[in-house]
């Protein structure tokens, strides 16, 4: 068995399984938040990639040390692939310019500038984001006030900030300074 082509097999199968699992979850579990369907897809893909990695190591009679290195490195690479996939999916879901282009494509008569402004005014944008945060269980509304319900996005933002600082030498800008 020629092992050279086997090095990409775990990522290919894991990637396919990630996309299929997320698409299946979205179709079968109506109302499942985007983040949850993505996470399910990544977990299925990761397990698939690791299973293929283990199978390849066994078929090639790799030692325990080499097998563990292959499993860890493929897990790290796949998590990076999953992170990239999240942003690919999220781009189509939330980017205003993609939505505007899509709505223009679907409108046979086109849209006026005023119609676009009406659909994408500041209150509409905020309302959509508030709805998404509420549906995802990240915020709650009580007595006309909005409260943070969990720290998952904050944790992700802090991890991203740390990675930018480590790899790019950038410090994140405190956006609160612009609103004072």
Number of beta-strand segments: 2
Q: How large, in whole angstroms, is the Cα Rg? A: 21 Å
Integer count of domains:
3
List the quaternary state of the chains: single chain
Estimate what percentage of residues fall within beta strands.
under 5%
Number of helices: 7
Helix content: over 70%
Order of helices and strands: HHHHHHEEH
Shape: elongated
User: How is the main sheet built?
Assistant: 2 strands, antiparallel
Overall SS class: mainly alpha
Stretches with pLDDT under 50, minimum 5 residues: 175-180
Distance between the termini: 65 Å
**Arrangement of strands in the largest sheet:** 1-2
User: How much is the average pLDDT?
Assistant: 81
What is the compact description of this entry?
Helices cover 70% and strands 4% of the residues.
Supply the key terms.
180 residues; mainly alpha; 2 strands; 70% helix; elongated; disordered C terminus
Folded structure, characterized:
The chain has 180 residues and is mainly alpha-helical. The chain has 3 domains: 5-94, no CATH class; 95-149, no CATH class; 151-180, no CATH class. Helices cover 70% and strands 4% of the residues. The chain contains 7 helices and 2 strands, in the order H-H-H-H-H-H-E-E-H. The protein has helices at 9-28, 34-59, 64-94, 96-106, 113-119, 122-135, 152-168; strands spanning 139-142, 145-148. A two-stranded antiparallel ribbon has the order 1-2. The chain starts with 8 loop residues before the first helix and ends in a 12-residue tail after the last helix.
